[in-house]
Design brief:
This protein is α+β, with helices and mostly antiparallel strands. The protein is built from 6 helices and 5 strands; from the N terminus they run βββββαααααα.
Length: 234
Amino acid sequence: MNTYKKYCPNVFVAKCEEKHQKGEIIILTTKYGKEHECEVHNLVGYMGTKENPFFMYSITRVDGFNAQERAKAKAEKLQGFASNAEKRSDEAYNTRASKHELEFMSLGEPIKIGHHSEKRHRKLFEKYDNKMRKSIEESEKAKEYLSRAEYWESKANDINLSMPESLEYYEFKLHQAKEKHQFYKDNPDKREHSYSLTYANKEVKETAKKVESAIILWGTKEEIEQLKKEKLQK
């Protein structure tokens, strides 16, 4: 059975018992038993033992469902949760007590110890407090869901390593990072602060690592061979 395996942040690859060819369509099964048709791209590694190996392949969903779609779906789901929580909050607030009970409580009558009304009065306050607490809790849940939904909405436009187009994107970002680093080297007076050159160098290194990962995941055979040669030369 072919299953999903996390390769790096945002990227899941296919963990397969058999070898597959680039462009082949295979079925991957999630841990929940759902099946997805996926296209095989590159062999990115191995797992298991020599006697019982597993082959790891970069894949894309045939139905086009990718990290951006996951982010959109996550945002929509959380917005639904927020709407439901807000609705429950409103319901709890609006039904916290009957009109008669509210009129009674508005009089500010203290609980009369030993009076026949004491038990009913205490129950009324307890009911009011519980309903108000429930309303506040649901309102806080709604705020949390909306905050998380906003986060996933922002992620919906991200390019990341789970997408084949990430190779071209990170190659462009690496070019920009190198230009920025060189500019700071050549123009010390243009640095915003004493760590500008250090941060620019760090950005080059981090982006270069992403380019390497993108090549392994989505690059051509020639690009992968070139990457191997460059690593051997270092």
